[in-house]
Amino acid sequence: MKKILLIEDNKDVCENTADILELSNYEVATAENGRVGVDKVRTFKPDLILCDIMMPVMDGYEVIEELSKDNETASIPFIFLTAKADKSDFRKGMNLGADDYLTKPFEEHELLEAVTSRLKKSDFLRKEFSKNIEGIHEFLQDAASYLNLEHISREYRPKKYDKKEFVFREGDGAHTLYFIESGTVKTYKTMESGKEFVTGIHKAGDFMGQLSLLNPNGTYLETAMAIENTEAYGIPKSAFIHLLYENKEVAHKFIDIISNSLIEVQEQLVNMAYSSVRQRVAKNLLDMFYKGIIKDFPNEGIDIPREDFAGMIGTATETAIRTLSEFKEEGLIKMGYAKRIILLDKEALQHIVDNR
Questions:
Q1: pLDDT(274) > 90
Q2: Strand partners, 263
Q3: Based on CB atoms within 10 Å of each CB, which residue in 41, 71, 120, 200 is the most buried?
Q4: Average pLDDT, the chain
Q5: Do 146 and 250 form a contact (C-beta atoms < 8 A)?
């Protein structure tokens, strides 16, 4: 049962409003002024607050300002109840962070519709979405409902890519954000020398193309090629833009979902700038192990061409091969079937990474 705190100094309005809410299966606590209301927020922990503006001791504006100072209470949906209908009062309340504004006297349906809408939006913002296609579909549908945008809620169908098939190419028009359902994809940039700089190895649950969709030139900034049979979903740029710019809260949640690979790219560049070749090789081996791309037992994982591995750590292929050979001689890794690498000593590899 959802909990609502009603802060209202008019006894009749307070009782009538509380009755309406309780008959609609909400648990209601009341407070006769703002000071009492702020204290009750701490103990009652409401899912939503209904608050009058003109009250003794502490008015509604002071209540929301006080609650906004605490991260635990700042996110509670807040609806003002007031007999004042002046636009400047409305604007002041919304600028302070109110979610809605009901002018007294209000109809029962107006109250319940406002409460239902704000609780629904609050549930969406607090909800955790799994990083698989079911979770992505759920997020898109809930976000579409939150933003009242029907066109971003439809389910997208996967496309299959064979090994070595391009998902997109550097310089092509960037119209799609990709989500990998299964398989593995490498992304890389082609340098002036013609060599490839591998920007990432992406597996199931990863997004690709985020930064490219924000590129002012409107083109992909890198190439994406499947390094094993892959299935990926394409989310149109129009949906991406709406999710990013339509609403601040939705944007924060969307960025949180798609941002992992962006963080990895940043870490990769820092790693290349300040680490030795041995440290870069050790870190990339561990990163690929924790992503499930390479394993610690034979005949599992996927083949990693040595030139791709060299591109990931920013060194010549011969240097990468020599370092892998050193790790093999030291008993840290083992070469398995084809080009598969098997990790034997993760602790020793982590020690190499940490020993700057």
A1: no
A2: none
A3: 41
A4: 84
A5: yes
